[in-house]
Amino acid sequence: MAAVMDARSTSLEALAERIDRAVTAIGRLRAENAKLRDRITELEAQGGDLDALKTAERQWTTERKEIAHRIEELVAKLDKLEV
Asked: How many CA atoms lie within 13 Å of 8's alpha carbon, on the beta-carbon side?
């Protein structure tokens, strides 16, 4: 009977150790998960900034083309005046 009790005690101690390790691992994983969520939020915000920059770039490119076209028209007019 004492041997059975010792075996159960040993099994319970081993189980308790495994549970403690699992609790520690879960705590560590939760902390890591929180850090990753924060990083995702940060990257999503930067993605929004990137979209705004791309929009600004498209607008700038359009304005640049319009200005270049207007300059070409003015140069053509000047060429006609010189002739």
From this structure: 5
